[in-house]
Design brief:
With about 350 residues, this protein is of the alpha/beta class. The protein has one domain: Amidase signature (AS) domain (Amidase signature (AS) enzymes), CATH 3.90.1300. Helices cover about 30% and strands about 20% of the residues. The protein contains 13 helices and 15 strands. It has an eleven-stranded mixed beta sheet, with helices on both faces. A hairpin with a 5-residue loop joins strand 8 and strand 9. The protein starts with 5 loop residues before the first helix and ends in a 9-residue tail after the last helix.
Length: about 350
């Protein structure tokens, strides 16, 4: 990962102040002064919700990550944001950490911090081909003090914190100061669905693999929680291919509760296991694939050793360059030469 420069930082703030997708609520452009004191300064966006503590964001400064923007989020924590648009598709942006994902895609921020109750970090990240990570161990003491919520499915839960970024290396850096992970010494065991990944792909994973059908992933949350909980007990990491998120339908339970037609529209949002990771108290990372809005979802129980196995696999996962993101992150596109500038 290249060292950021003050010029690049200034351009990030220029885009944030322009706010082309209405995804920014507040900008702190004087973060640029940090370049006078440090060699590496990374810009962070934070979902503008009270569950995220200022102390947690402050702790990220240990690895050069500083608050740059407060990000918009979907109203009432909905799984789709009818106020913001996905920059790629022009359709409603996946929520609820919608603005946080958009602002990373736009290059405004290097990393975003959001909250995830039922997929609210993992799904927005996947919807724009970014990396998403959540764990109940992030700022655990503070998050356990948060009031429980009840989903539209009638399931009680507390949200977890999560990160959204395009850089796995930067994610690794912030996890060193925010997550208790220890080196795993055992041979990892993985469960995957052969409908998602081939034997050749699984053969690249260093560990013991076994196949199980994950066809239940689109069932009701209650049914999925019951199945997934048992499967996670029997492996170090479970791997599911999910998406494309919210391209053919809208994965939103508010809409889906009306009738059979809207239930099918919700189903076509293609959100599977990511809807229940937090509700199970599990840890997960979603990694982009070469397909649009499709990700490999790696899930594990929230123990330091299993998380270590998951991150080791994620580090070796195939990466795909997204050449189209430049259409959104090039500052010059938002400040083009105007009439008379070429005379």
């Amino acid at each position: 990962m290249n060292q950021p420069t003050a010029t690049e930082g200034a351009k990030k703030s220029f885009i944030a102040l322009k706010n082309p997708y209405d995804s920014v609520e507040k900008v702190y452009p004087m973060i640029i002064d940090r370049f006078q004191e440090e060699t590496s300064v990374y810009y962070a966006g934070v979902k503008n919700r009270s569950q995220i503590s200022s102390a947690f964001i402050k702790s990220l400064e240990a690895v050069g990550v500083y608050l740059h923007t407060l990000d918009k989020a979907s109203v009432a924590g909905r799984a789709v944001d009818i106020q913001l648009k996905n920059p790629y598709t022009g359709r409603p942006m996946t929520g609820s950490s919608s603005g946080t994902a958009i602002n990373v895609l736009l290059g405004i921020n290097d990393i975003g911090v959001g909250t995830d109750g039922g997929g609210s970090v993992l799904a927005p990240a996947m919807a724009v081909n970014l990396i998403g990570f959540i764990s109940p161990l992030l700022d655990e003491k503070n998050m356990q003090q948060q009031a429980s919520k009840v989903s539209t499915d009638g399931i009680s839960f507390r949200p977890s914190l999560g990160f959204i970024t395009a850089s796995f290396h930067l994610l690794q850096q912030v996890l060193t100061v925010s997550l208790p992970v220890k080196s795993a010494e055992t041979i990892p065991t993985f469960i995957y669905d052969s409908a998602d990944f081939s034997k050749e792909e699984a053969g690249e994973w260093e560990g013991q693999t076994s196949t199980e059908s994950l066809a239940f992933k689109f069932d009701t949350r209650e049914a999925v929680i019951s199945e997934l909980k048992e499967m996670l007990k029997n492996c170090d990491v479970l791997i599911s291919k999910e998406g494309p998120v919210d391209t053919a339908g809208l994965g939103d339970t508010v809409l889906g509760h009306f009738d059979e037609r809207t239930q099918e529209l919700q189903r076509q949002g293609n959100k599977g296991l990511l809807r229940v990771v937090n509700m199970l108290g599990a840890t997960a990372i979603t990694l982009p694939t070469e397909e649009f809005a499709v990700g490999a979802l790696l899930i594990c129980e929230s123990t330091p050793e299993k998380i270590s196995h998951m991150l080791q696999l994620a580090e070796k996962w195939p990466t795909y360059s997204n050449t189209y993101s430049r259409y959104f992150s090039d500052c010059g596109e938002y400040y083009p030469q105007e009439f008379g500038n070429n005379q």
